[in-house]
Structures are given as structure tokens and as C-alpha cells.
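Worked example 3. Consider a protein that binds zinc ion.
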Amino acid sequence: MPELPEVETTVRGLARVLEGRRIARVELRRADLRRAFPPDLGQRLAGATVTGLARRAKYGLIHTDRSDTLVFHLGMSGSWRIDRPELDKHDHLLLETDDGTRLTLNDPRRFGSVDLLTTAELDEWPAFKALGPEPFGLHAGDLKRRLRGRTAAIKLLLGDQTIVAGLGNIYVCEALYRAGIHPRRSGGSVSLDRLRRLAAAIEEVLNEAIEAGGSTLKDFASPDGELGYFSKAFAVYDREGRPCATCGGRVRRMVQGGRSTFYCAKCQR
Ligand SMILES: [Zn+2]
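Given these inputs, the predicted complex is written out as C-alpha cells:
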């Protein structure tokens, strides 16, 4: 499942081929993903020039000179592909630029989404309006206010998009491990000092993954043109029973909110 680093590297990869280019052709190869494609998508995108790309939480944004923004979410299995010689049945949206580059949005499980908004209404879009701050540049004091009085486990609160936007299970596990915070500790009980360490740890684990993606992939694409997916090494995630690199104890797994949490009981308090 794509997490924030995959989305970020996808956006950077798309920027290299889309920025400043005109979209010459748009082809919808089915009517919907998780929800219907905007009915006027082709009409509004074809002929528009891409002015810039960005990421918000786990959404990618493609801005055009018509003051529109295409917002995509990769869901469980989505990816953008560049210049594949053959289309396959899971390529649901195709964009062709004026220099002949062909981009396809592939999504076998179709949990992804594509929306088209006017750039001016982005902040008011319901999915964005509810989002907390981005995980980069998090302010510990702000985090403390958001967690005040919350008795739920810090692990669950960090995955709540209204508290911090864009953090998924993997990076919450990794950041809590790095900050030495037990995933079951109640959110409101984490001191400001430890939240400072946590904010730094969140940024570190995400940046390391994004850099790994940048160095493993050529222009953020795999040899077959798929953007954003790369293998990463984790300290605790999916390492149940393996040794903790810090104390030599065993990494443990427990279930919180229906998801697996990986942690070290000795290093995290
Ligand atoms: Zn340990």
C-alpha cells in the first residue's frame, strides 16, 4: 500500500515529465475508481498546461493553467506509469503530453480516486479541510495541544489524519520506535520534550524513505516506468521476533485498532 514516501516520489517523478507541458490527450478507460471520474475531466484537462505539482497528505496534486487541480489518491494499489509500450486492463486513465510522453494511472484494486477541483477551492474541499498539519515541520507545541486530554494510544492518534496528515501504519511504528515512545502510551501523557523527539523522528523516517526512493529509482521510476515504489529497510515494521538494533531484544507485534503495531518493549516507554 502506498504511503507518504511513495506518493512524494510519485509526485516528484511526475513533475519531471509534466511540469510546463501541455496535456494533449486525455483518455478515460473506465468510468470510475473508488468513485466516478469527474464527467468533465477530459474536457477540462485536454489542452491545459501543467503549472506545478504538489502533495498534500497522501494526495498528489497536478495544477494547470486553467486554475484547475487534478487531485489523485493511489488507494491500495495505484501507481502512475511512464511510457509503457503496452496498456494493460488496469490502466484506467491515460494522459499524453505535447512531447509525446504517455502517462497511465494503473490501479488493479481500484481503491484510488481522481478528482478535479478549481485550485481556489482546494482548502475548502472536505477531504482536505479536516486534515491536520503536514508531518514535515511539525511543531511540538502544536502537537501537544492537539493531543491534550486524549487518552487513546499515541499510535492510534498519530494515524488520525485530523491530528497529523499523511502518516500511515509503517511510519507511525518507525517514528515511535525512534523516539522511544511506547505505542500504547496515552497521547495526552507524552511530554513536550518527547514530542519534540517524536516530531524530529517522524521527519527523519519519512525523509530517509523518500531519499531511498530517489536513489534506488531513476528519475523516481523503476526500469519499467512505474513511479514511486521501492524497497525500504525498517527498524521494527514487519520484523516481529527479529532483534532490536538498539538493545538486542526481540521486536514485538500487537494489534491496535485492527492494525499491527511493531515495537521494542525495552526501548519504548
Ligand atoms: Zn530495543
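Take a moment to read the result before moving on. The chain has a mean pLDDT of 96. Strands lie at 23-28, 50-56, 59-64, 68-73, 79-82, 91-97, 102-106, 113-118, 252-256, 259-263.
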